[in-house]
Amino acid sequence: MAEASAAVMLDERHFAVAEDECNTLLVYARGQSQPIGSGLDLAEFLKTGDKASDIEGGAIIGDIVYWISSHSLPKSGKPRDWRKQFFATRVAKVDGTPSLVAHLHPYTGLLDAMIRSPELSELQLAAAAKELPEQPGGLNIEGLATWKGDGLLIGFRNPLVKGKAPLVPLRNPAELIKGEGIPAKFERPILVDLGGRGIRSIDKVGNTYLIVGGPVADTGSFALFRWSGDPGKRPERVLKLPAGYFPEALLPVPGSKQVDLLSDDGSKQPEATCGSTDKAKQQFRTLRVAVP
Q1: CATH of 4-290, one of 1.10.3470, 3.50.30, 2.120.10, 2.60.40
Q2: pLDDT at 164 > cutoff 90
Q3: What CA–CA distance (Å, rounded) separates 157 from 152?
Q4: How far apart are CA 31 and CA 233, in angstroms?
Q5: pTM for the whole structure
Q6: Are 107 and 88 in contact (CB under 8 A)?
Q7: Opening angle at CA 95, ends 94 and 100, nearest 5
């Protein structure tokens, strides 16, 4: 794959990666450039056929990995249900090597629930959902992280609210994927100041959060921020990231103060059909950085 758009550590060595152009999750081992096995094809589970769900964020709680798509409009500007995915996979180990299996049921009502939620009214998501994702005020979800034990934080690349990026606390992710029609429950959004950037990735590392901030559109700078998790505290910028690198996923390096940043390199490589020989030749880059 080339469009590494979300990643989650499965153990100290192995990690799963999603991309925004194919409905496949691949498992890699650190230090090896090729994935382990053929990965998990999600097309049947998500009922998307050959349409890409635009998976953009992932977070693990216990042995359950939650994934979220962008919920954004495609280039055509026409709403597509297959881009409104919230779902889970379960970690299964064979001879000590982790893999992923589909878990319970996809939930496709998240955007509607957020639009209806009185707690989230200030985000004006109904209006944002009608705009292209990289336009000012458009809607684009790109981050997912654990929150208060069994909850999740949903990170928005767009829209910004007074120049700040929204984080939406989701209180009951485990209930949503049971397929029993239980409504999504939210807390008031947390607005984080990333210097006019949106959230490209957010992960809890130790007792704090690391946030990759990047431009709402295609041009602008990326930076790495540390945030305490306190809604009243402003994130601290700890690193400016190099130009020409497009980080959309973050993986902590166990036992160190380093992290690996995965770059979405789709714009740098020729397009290839999912599952094709040309697709198998694609690559993404990782950059290891020390966090001060």
Answers
A1: 2.120.10
A2: yes
A3: 16
A4: 36
A5: 0.97
A6: no
A7: 25
